[in-house]
């Protein structure tokens, strides 16, 4: 079971409230097993999820340990020493040396959206002492938790990109010219110019007819289509062409890269486990010609002049 804030909690898998009694929890578990057992024609995957959920909260000790668990870095703000603030003068980065030049606030918009929705869900006048308290996060609706998971995903990607080296430049939370649309990361290096979407839906995904689908995604969700629209608007705004669009997901969300080949003016879309992202940004796509230093430098100046941030 994924530890992502966006993933279904053991309580949600068992269909009970986090405040359910031990007896209610036990009855829900037994009922789930009866409905999903493969021997009676049930769903083997749902049966397995129920067993894993019970392992997490089925005993008082296990339940107490799970309820105390804090999501990794869920309350941490991005390192201000790594990223230039969106309010900083254009062309000024806060850390150079061997690290990539970094601009913007990765995860900033997603975190703000999480906090806004959490306060709205809690109710007007309700005081929230710690918006990252584990019990509070788990009790929030999954669509709210998704924004926290997305913020953490963007911050994780930014940390990886920052280590690429001084030959790379990255901009985060980039406004895409559409109403409320943004591109999570724009990364420029010798291998090309990449638009990157960082996501975490709390479960595995697969590619179907050029779109990502999965149990954690709604039937009307179109992440690749939305990403292509935002990247297309940004490309037109900046007068640049992206080498590829990259969707970075947690490693447990997919085993191997998923590729939607480019057609006409549409760039290739590559969905990769986050552990493979750096190799793709550094080496580019197979058979792709690498840009010269002069072209990269010229393109970086154009991007630096034209990019605006979604939190400006």
Automatic annotation (TrEMBL):
Read off the PROSITE patterns from this record: DNAJ_2
Domain named J: residues: 9-70
Q: Name one Pfam family in it.
A: DnaJ
Note down the stretches annotated as region Disordered. 70-95
- InterPro entries (alphabetical): Diphthamide-biosynth_chaperone, DnaJ_domain, J_dom_sf
Stretch forming the signal peptide:
none
What PANTHER family does this protein map onto? DNAJ DOMAIN (PROKARYOTIC HEAT SHOCK PROTEIN)-RELATED (PTHR44240), J DOMAIN-CONTAINING PROTEIN (PTHR44240:SF10)
What name appears for this protein in its UniProt entry?
J domain-containing protein
